[in-house]
Amino acid sequence: MTTTADTSSSSIRREPGLLGQTVVVIGGSSGIGLETARQARAEGAEVILTGRNAERLEQPARELGALSTAAFDATHPDALAHFFNSLQAPIDHVMVTAGDPPYGNLLEASPAEARRLLTGRLVLPVDVARAVIGKVRPPGCLIFMGATGHRHPRLGEGIISTISVATPTLIANLALELAPVRVNQVAPGFVDTRLSASLLGEDLDARRNELRATLPIGRVVGPADVAALAVHLMINTAVTGATYDVDGGQQFVE
Q1: Where are the domains of the chain?
Q2: Residue 140 CB contacts under 8 Å (≥ 6 apart), including other chains
Q3: Looking at the domain 17-247, which fold is it?
Q4: Is the pTM of this model over 0.85?
Q5: Which candidate, 182, 157, 178, places its Cα nearest to that of 243?
Q6: pLDDT tens-digit profile of 45-58?
Q7: Where are the beta strands (DSSP E) in the chain?
Q8: What does the pLDDT read at residue 7?
Q9: Which helix (H) or strand (E) holds 6?
Q10: CB-based contact 18:46 (threshold 8 Å)
Q11: What is the pLDDT of residues 126-155, one digit of tens each?
Q12: To 5 degrees, how large is the angle CA 203–CA 209–CA 211?
């Protein structure tokens, strides 16, 4: 005999949102990329992890039971194209967290460095989009990383603030050109990752304490927060061409 409690329990159970789908994470050995892969697996997806360092991919691949891994520099378009051409099965989603943080003054950087940093975060999405044509099954999506904390001009952040303002328009245009495959961007502020620790060094704890005291959410944003948004964008097939902020309100208090 089925009880009311049993009926209620079964009625709220849902099928994993990514069951039968394959997610590629470019930059999947740690931080936001790894957490996105972890949450995608929890939603039933198979995952393929890539990164620059083959050894750093080994443990995450074992942990998640990844379909495969690949080590290459995603900022090299030929390596990127070779990777996607080597995939045998179709894929459904690509999450891109790769790329160096483009910090620095516009005029203090050398011409070559300024050109590399300014174009890197703008060219990479185009290179990825070009490489996945015919590889991603609609209504799958590409997801890129932006930033909310640098949208206003600020001394010392000329490069990253320029990129942060430009990328939402780029994402929207790619969504039109790549349709019906979807293209979106997630834009965090400070995220408590190993990369943040390496950038801040001894100032890390002070930054954490400052954010806990000032952010509207009263805590520091972590990789799981960003990954949850990325996985939602994979599942919600009505969303394309959008940039979604996930910074705990940092942009409103700084």
Answers
A1: 17-247
A2: 21, 91, 92, 93, 94, 181, 182, 234
A3: Rossmann fold (3.40.50)
A4: yes
A5: 182
A6: 999 999 999 999 99
A7: 22-26, 46-51, 68-71, 91-96, 136-145, 182-188, 243-246
A8: 47
A9: helix 4-12
A10: no
A11: 999 999 999 999 999 999 999 887 777 888
A12: 100
Provide the token pair at 201.
Answer: 């060094």
Lowest mean pLDDT among 101-110, 155-164, 169-178: 101-110
Residues of 198-222 as b/e, b for ≥16 C-beta within 10 angstroms? Answer: eeeeeeeeebbeebeeebeeeebbb
Cα 172 to chain centroid distance, Å, stands at 16
**DSSP-based three-state secondary structure for 188:** strand
Cα 245-123-128 angle, rounded to 5 deg: 80
Q: Residue 237: how many CA atoms within 13 Å on its side-chain side?
A: 10
pLDDT score, position 187: 95
Q: In the 8-state DSSP scheme, what is residue 202? A: G
- Joined tokens for residue 84: 């996607």
Which value, to the nearest 10 degrees, does the dihedral of the CA atoms of residues 245, 233, 101, 71 take? 170
Q: Mean pLDDT over all residues of the chain?
A: 92
Q: Which of 225, 227, 218, 229 is nearest to 253 (CA)?
A: 218
Single-letter amino acid code for the residue at 113: E
Q: What is the pLDDT of residue 11?
A: 53
* Percent of the chain scoring above 70 in pLDDT: 94
Distances (CA, A) of 146 to 156, 173, 188: 18, 15, 7
For the chain, helix, strand, coil in percent to 5 are: 50, 15, 35
| Amino acid (one-letter) located at 17 | G
Length of the chain in residues, anyone? Answer: 254
Q: Note the pLDDT of residue 72.
A: 97
pLDDT tens-digit profile of 7-19?
444 457 779 999 9
